[in-house]
Design goal:
This protein is mainly α. The chain is built from 4 helices and no strands.
Amino acid sequence: AKSVTDLQLSVRARKALQMLNIETLGDLASRTEAELMGVKNFGATSLEEVTEKLVEYGLGLRTLDE
């Protein structure tokens, strides 16, 4: 499994992922925007950064079933 450390994210985004114990791309893809946005200091800019990185690997954040 690819580690999120390979994504070369900003320090702020990395810290948020650490707080949620997200270590791999799979872990990240299983989370929702709301879960990430719930972390202190993780805002729209960080969300955009993380989402763009996931797209590069053909992945995305989990969406709640509508």
